[in-house]
Design brief:
It holds the Pfam family Peptidase_M23. Keywords: Hydrolase. It contains six helices and 13 strands. The chain is α+β, with helices and mostly antiparallel strands. It folds into two domains: about 90 residues; about 120 residues, Glucose Permease (Domain IIA) (Distorted Sandwich).
Length: about 230
């Protein structure tokens, strides 16, 4: 085990139980609507008429061009109330456990103090998506490249502070933020395990930590799943 997860110190700021109930109800409504559309489609397919065939073709075209099925399924499986349904829980657990190793290594050792997903930002005071994980470590601790690749950005951001973005094979990008020092520049080729900077608290950060993200084909991924991190201490 490389990291261990610690309780989120900002959990008291999360949405109230009433707000979570409302969000859960809205999400359930969306799922029910999708299931209703599916049932209608299955019914229409049994009626072999030109009119029904035209309807099915139009719906199929809309789904094909306007919906990314992978994104839809990823969004569904990240809804806790969906994952808690007994009939679906084992399916998602099997899917997660069968994820192939991507060959990435952790950028440093430390405690994961904030995971991937929606959260209430402690400084901005708004609830929004947290596209990565926060790994707490002492300021100045070396940060390594998770995989070999090319630096596509080494800059400073008002929110993320000093950051490095590295592009890897397979249209994958890793992001290392709130750095104190940056040892690479845009265009540099880096090797897996190479030190690219140090832990800091630049940008919107109260304490020294590394904010680490993984993006694949433009979609934010949960780094703990990619690196097969155990949530148990």
């Amino acid at each position: 085990m490389w990291w261990r997860r610690e309780p989120d110190p900002y959990s008291q700021y999360y949405a109230s139980s009433d707000e979570r109930s409302i969000n859960r109800f809205v999400n359930l409504q969306k799922v029910m609507i999708a299931l209703a559309i599916l049932c209608v489609m299955l019914f229409l397919k049994k009626i072999d008429l030109p009119q029904t065939s035209a309807i099915i073709t139009r719906v199929h075209r809309a789904i094909t061009y306007e919906m990314d099925l992978a994104k839809f399924l990823d969004g569904i499986k990240n809804q806790k109330f969906i994952r808690d349904i007994p009939a679906l829980k084992s399916v998602f657990e099997k899917e997660t456990s069968s994820l192939p190793s991507r060959g990435f290594i952790p950028p440093l050792t430390g405690k994961v103090t904030s995971g991937f997903g929606r959260r209430f930002h402690p400084l901005l005071k708004v609830e929004r998506m947290h596209n990565g994980i926060d790994i707490e470590e002492l300021e100045g601790t070396p940060v390594k490249a998770a995989a070999s690749g090319t630096v596509i950005q080494a800059a400073e951001d008002a929110e993320l502070g000093r950051l490095v973005k590295i592009r890897h094979e397979g249209d994958v990008v890793t992001v290392y933020a709130h750095l104190k020092d940056v040892y690479v520049k845009t265009g540099d080729r880096v090797s897996q395990g190479q030190i690219i900077g140090t832990v800091g608290k630049t940008g919107l950060a109260e304490n020294p930590h590394l904010h680490f993200e993984i993006w694949e084909k433009g979609m934010a991924q949960d780094p703990e799943k990619w690196l097969e991190i155990s949530e148990k201490p």
